[in-house]
Amino acid sequence: MTRRYMQLDVFASRPGNGNPLAVVLDAQGLDDTAMQAIARWTRLPETTFVFPPSTPDATHRIRIFSPRREVPFAGHPSVGTAYALLDAGLVTPRDGLLVQEGIVGNLPLRVHGDGMQRTLAVRTPRARVQAIATPDDPRLATAIAGLQLGALPPVLMDGGRRWWLVELANEAHLRSVVPDWNAIAQLAEASDSMGLFVYARSQDPVYHYAVRAFVGATARFEDAASGAANATLAAWLAERDALPGDDGFYRVSQGREVGHDAIIELTVDGNGEVWSGGRAACVVRGELAWPLD
Question: Quick one: DSSP state of residue 240?
Answer without folding.
Answer: T
